[in-house]
Design brief:
By secondary structure, this protein is an alpha/beta fold. It is built from 8 helices and 11 strands.
Length: 270
């Protein structure tokens, strides 16, 4: 089998693994179906929502490269926290996510704002219109389990950016997985108890969630993610036609040890 056919076969298998690892089984709902309902409340257990904590860093990079964006895609927008933060100053925002449950929460949060939401896969999305900026936060790209899928996603980003447009995204570092995705934890929030358990195999970690709420049967979700070496990310950016501009390591969580939990990347198109 030649190398091109091998790459196509690996890419197809990677896509199948991504689908399989973001669902519990063929009989249950997609990933985040249960988690979406308590996701925002769970975030607030640890203080300010992550999008609020990282917003100054993101906005600084947007302003440096494009000023205030006229149009922006928030890729893998989740419950829309960052999407809503960007919908000001005349910016028209498109929020894209694969999860119907997360998009339902995002639409509720964004009511009355100049935001359009689309359900799509980050590896294949197409809005048919170029934008000034693309963002992708909450370590969403860590859910891609194959470097080829990272390149596919970056290629779609490049296809949507105007010349000079900017792409700002974050990733969880290997240290973040070793710190936050290892030990079992039980968390109590307003009206729910969340149990999280982890299984690690190589670079990939699977998190299994059990959500308990009064007068509801237990709900479950399964999320799989992985860390990427910086060299892989840089190569994927270059292969997609994006120019690397900046990488910052930071820790937005005061209660968590370590200074390099998160990576904030900046790239531009042409």
């Amino acid at each position: 089998m030649d190398r091109r056919r091998c790459r196509r076969r690996r890419s197809g298998l990677a896509a199948e693994r991504l689908i399989a690892n973001t669902t519990e089984s063929a009989e249950t709902a997609p990933a985040y179906s249960a988690f979406a309902e308590i996701y925002n409340a769970w975030q607030r257990l640890y203080g300010l929502e992550y999008a609020v904590l990282v917003a100054p860093r993101v906005n600084q990079r947007l302003a440096h490269h494009v000023g205030r964006p006229r149009t922006l895609i928030d890729l893998a927008c989740g419950t829309g926290t960052h999407t809503v933060l960007q919908a000001h100053g005349g910016t028209r925002v498109i929020g894209i996510d694969l999860s119907p449950a997360m998009l339902h929460q995002a639409r509720r949060r964004a009511a009355g704002r100049p935001i359009t939401f689309l359900q799509a896969d980050m590896r294949t999305f197409d809005t048919h219109n170029p934008v000034d900026a693309v963002t992708c936060l909450y370590a969403s790209l860590n859910h891609l389990l194959d470097p080829e899928d990272l390149t596919r996603t970056f290629t779609r980003v490049a296809a949507h950016l105007r010349p000079g447009g900017v792409f700002v995204f974050d990733l969880n570092s290997k240290h973040a997985f070793e710190t936050l995705w290892r030990d079992p934890v039980t968390e109590h929030g307003p009206g729910f108890t969340l149990h999280r358990r982890f299984n690690t195999k190589g670079a990939q970690t699977t998190m299994r969630l059990r959500i308990e709420r009064p007068n509801h049967p237990p709900a479950h979700d399964t999320l799989t993610a992985r860390s990427f070496r910086e060299s892989i990310v840089r190569t994927s950016l270059a292969d997609a036609g994006l120019t690397f501009r900046d990488l910052a390591h930071f820790n937005p969580f005061p209660s968590v040890p370590g200074t390099k939990l998160k990576q904030l990347w900046t790239a531009t198109y042409r």
